[in-house]
Amino acid sequence: MLRVLSEKKRYNFYKEMIGKNLDVLFEHEIVNGKIKGFSSNYVKVRQDYNPDFINQIITVSVDGIEDNFCTGTIMGTKNSIELIAS
Fold first, then answer.
1. What gap in Å lies between CA 40 and CA 66, rounded to an integer?
2. 5 torsion bin: left (phi>0), alpha (psi -120 to 50), beta (else)
3. Confidence tier at 12 by pLDDT (50, 70, 90)
4. d(C-alpha 23, C-alpha 47), whole Å
5. Taking the alpha carbons of 65, 69, 72, 75 in that order, is the dihedral positive or negative?
6. 19 pLDDT higher than 90
7. Are strands 57-66 and 34-39 parallel, antiparallel or unpaired?
């Protein structure tokens, strides 16, 4: 029962992310050629694998939810100066 409630709350939270830009730290490749990462507020994000994304902070415009991950469009990367300023 708690697991179902937790999944519903996560889904609703992820729905609120649609239309927002998230800075995502991508970590490693996962199943089916996808790479996963986490935003600063721990939203799980998945994108098509690109080796340039590994250990990089990438801005993603969230446009959907798929298999408990947010998905979206890559908007660009952040350099260390931009991260310090924000």
1. 19
2. alpha
3. very high
4. 13
5. positive
6. yes
7. unpaired
